[in-house]
Design goal:
- By secondary structure, the protein is mainly alpha-helical.
- The chain has two domains: 78 residues; 42 residues.
- Helix content is 83%, strand content 0%.
- The protein is built from five helices and no strands.
- The chain is globular.
Length: 121
């Protein structure tokens, strides 16, 4: 149960950081492109990769892995699980499966969001 509480607490921190950074970027960069979300997702993905590698080599810290990756970066990014799974597949030499996963998530995810939007409109 303590692990669940840590993931929840770190998720809250990550969400607040995403909100604050997004706010600052939107106030600073005036373009009609979702720069804030892009910067947040790319930054979060960088940290996911760094932590993924770190925890592979330092298994004694595995108890803090879920709160940091699932909680903090899950709250911070909008697609931590997606990035994490792609890295995992690539590390397991399942390149075709990783590429298919990327294609399917993007194609089906965006399509589903669009269908949901149209259904609700």
């Amino acid at each position: 149960m303590n692990q669940v509480m840590l993931v929840a607490a770190e998720g809250a921190v990550g969400s607040v950081l995403r909100y604050l950074l997004g706010f600052v970027i939107k106030q600073t960069v005036a373009v009609s492109f979702p720069v804030a979300t892009l910067v947040i997702n790319v930054t979060g993905s960088l940290f996911i990769g760094l932590l993924f590698a770190y925890f592979q080599h330092h298994t004694s810290f595995n108890l803090i892995r879920p709160p940091l990756i699932i909680g903090l970066l899950g709250g911070f990014t909008t697609f931590y699980a997606f990035s994490f799974k792609v890295i995992e597949l690539m590390e397991n030499k399942q390149i075709t499966k990783a590429l298919l996963y990327v294609f399917m998530n993007n194609t089906f995810g965006i399509s589903a969001a669009y269908i949901g939007y149209k259904l609700a409109s």
